[in-house]
């Protein structure tokens, strides 16, 4: 290989790396912007950027006011989310029918998970608002199966949202 060919190859490689970095940086900026909008609650009903408004057809259960999916970042095996059909940020803004439909699904999900995974217990909860840890401003209920040994210190359960207050001592 001649010096000119080597220089050309190096130049081409540098150009490719530059383009890859530009694309990656652009993607990261868009993701950061999207995440900021999601966390701030700046979304319209059925906003195309809301991941829970997008129905990919993978619902395990579907009802008039809610559907159930597996969490894409599960805390434990079988972690499921019950999503309101209507885009609403706060649980307290749901209609009574929507609330009832979502809580009815908690019971159905429990029966389903008992058969599928035989967990030893459950944590069920709703994060409402950024201070609670809600990262996607679309109402959803977490149903998290628990298994003996999945954590060394399960006592305190949902009290663990504030670790310093988890203990009863």
Provide a descriptive summary of the structure in words:
It is an enzyme of class 2 (transferase). It comes from Pandoraea pneumonica. Residues 60-153 form the HIT domain. Its EC number is 2.7.7.53. This is AP-4-A phosphorylase. The chain has 169 residues and is of the alpha+beta class. The protein folds into two domains: 12-40; 51-159, HIT family, subunit A. Helix content is 36%, strand content 14%. The chain has two helices and five strands. It has helices spanning 3-40, 96-117, and strands spanning 61-62, 66-70, 80-84, 121-125, 140-146. A five-stranded antiparallel β-sheet has the order 1-2-3-5-4, covered by helices on one side. Strand 1 and strand 2 form a beta hairpin. The longest helix has 38 residues, at 3-40. It is extended and about 75 Å long.
Q: Please report the first level of CATH classification, the CATH class of the largest domain.
A: Alpha Beta
The overall number of domains is 2
Assign the CATH architecture of the largest domain: 2-Layer Sandwich
Count, helices: 2
Strand line-up of the largest beta sheet: 1-2-3-5-4
Compressed to H and E, one letter per element, the order equals HEEEHEE
Q: Kindly identify the CATH topology of the largest domain.
A: HIT family, subunit A
The number of distinct β-strands equals 5
InterPro entries: AP-4-A_phosphorylase, Histidine_triad_CS, HIT-like, HIT-like_sf
Enzyme class: transferase
Domain HIT: 60-153
Motif (Histidine triad motif): 138-142
What is the topological layout?
Blueprint: H1 3-40, E1 61-62, E2 66-70, E3 80-84, H2 96-117, E4 121-125, E5 140-146
Antiparallel strand pairs: 1-2, 2-3, 3-5, 4-5
């Amino acid at each position: 290989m001649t010096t000119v060919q080597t220089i050309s190859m190096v130049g081409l490689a540098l150009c490719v790396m530059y383009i890859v970095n530009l694309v990656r940086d652009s993607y990261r900026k868009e993701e950061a912007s999207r995440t900021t909008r999601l966390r701030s609650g700046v979304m319209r009903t059925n906003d195309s950027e809301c991941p829970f408004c997008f129905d990919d057809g993978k619902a395990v259960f579907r009802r008039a006011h809610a559907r159930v999916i597996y969490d894409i970042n599960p805390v434990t095996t079988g972690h499921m989310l019950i999503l309101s059909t209507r885009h609403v940020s706060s649980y307290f803004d749901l209609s009574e029918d929507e609330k009832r439909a979502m809580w009815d699904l908690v019971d159905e999900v429990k029966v389903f998970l008992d058969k599928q995974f035989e967990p030893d217990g459950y944590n069920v909860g709703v994060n409402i608002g950024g201070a609670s840890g809600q990262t996607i401003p679309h109402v959803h209920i977490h149903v998290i199966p628990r298994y003996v040994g999945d954590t060394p210190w399960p006592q305190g359960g949902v009290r663990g949202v504030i670790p310093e207050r988890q203990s009863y001592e």
